[in-house]
Amino acid sequence: MKIAISGKGGVGKTTLAACLARYYAKKGYKVVAVDADPDSNLASALGLEPDKVLEITPLVEMSRLIEERTGAKSGEYGLYFKLNPKVDDIPQKFGIDVDGVKLLVAGTVKAGGSGCYCPENVFLKRLFRHLIVNSDEVVILDMEAGIEHLGRGTCESMDCLIIVVEPGLRSVQTAHTVKKMAKDLGIKSLFVVINKLKSHEEKVLLESNLKDLRLIGVLPYSEGVRDSDLKSLSPCNVDKRFSSAIEEIATKIEEEIEGSKGG
Ligand SMILES: Nc1ncnc2c1ncn2[C@@H]1O[C@H](COP(=O)(O)OP(=O)(O)OP(=O)(O)O)[C@@H](O)[C@H]1O
Ligand SMILES: [Mg+2]
To answer: What domains does the chain contain, in order, with CATH numbers?
Structure first.
């Protein structure tokens, strides 16, 4: 399963990505969690200690690696380089183990001119496309807020895109925009998760604005989750109600993806 997570800023993408990753890992899947947000913080949401988080070097900043695999130095736009660099050993060699999850921090590609065709970008795209897929593997991609990056080809190879919304219609507006773009990118399945829900009334209001977007689950607002961020702890096991909602969503995603692959 290859799952990408998108949505407006601050809605809870990283929280959902981390908790799904840890849940699937606990269930016995081999999980690769990819932090594709330049402002990366999936590591701490997964529960990596703050001092170790500081030691992480994002993949695109490993210039020797990029050079070795693509045959071109970072910043060399327009020159010849390999369009299919070897990436299959990357999770194993460069993944950081956090509680049974392999974390890859992608980093930012500073687009210069023809940003799309710099060696770093080719390397990342190839990586996203290649990652897995055996039936016991799960890839979870925590994406940057907003929509600009959707055109850059990060998520075409995903089985499903989950858009997170919160009680607030601006996040729903973003979801509709993402949906329009996802269609053009050929993403097969698209689902919405409502996060930070406080009341039934909020749910009714959000649902009526989701229109043709498919709701796959709801996560409650949780003081425990909020508090975990204050303390640099993982939000994944701090609140039973929240964790069981994660479990329900994870199960639904499995069913949906299996269903779409089976038929
Ligand atoms: N269900 C929840 N209940 C309470 N607080 C939550 C909940 N989900 C997320 N939060 C809090 O909201 C904040 C934003 O969450 P998170 O970082 O997961 O969002 P994001 O969409 O990844 O943000 P960004 O767009 O900056 O990447 C965090 O402080 C997090 O702890
Ligand atoms: Mg985030």
So the answer is: 2-262 (3.40.50.300)
